[in-house]
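Thread: Newbie trying to understand structure tokens

Hi all, I'm a second-year student working on a class project, and my supervisor (Dr. K.) asked me to get a predicted structure for one chain before our next meeting. I've only ever worked with sequences, so writing a 3D structure as a token string is new to me. If someone could post the tokens and maybe explain what I'm looking at, I'd be very grateful. Here's the chain:
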Amino acid sequence: MIAILIEFDVKPDCREEFLQKLRRDARETLGDTGCLRMEVLLPQSGGNSVLLSELWRDRQAIENHRNRPGHSHAWQEALISAKRVTACDVVQD
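---
Reply by user tm_fold:
Sure, no problem. This is what the structure looks like when written as tokens:
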């Protein structure tokens, strides 16, 4: 399994619009084959950070998602000032 953690720095006046659109995208992505989890997270410390936690079955599932017709993250560009993506291998006992 592969986990992807994304931290967004959202522009101050764009937080509600960003959250609405990100939550919609997360719900839609949960329907993709191989998407096991998709969670929008708000740090308890407040601020303008929003995190997205994704869990995928494997690399092929991620590639299929990226190549899905109509898939785009372009809408995010006007609403954020920075984005950090970390892909992780999930280690289980």
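A couple of things are worth pointing out once you decode it. Strands lie at 2-10, 35-41, 49-56, 80-89. The mean pLDDT is 94. Feel free to ask follow-ups in this thread.
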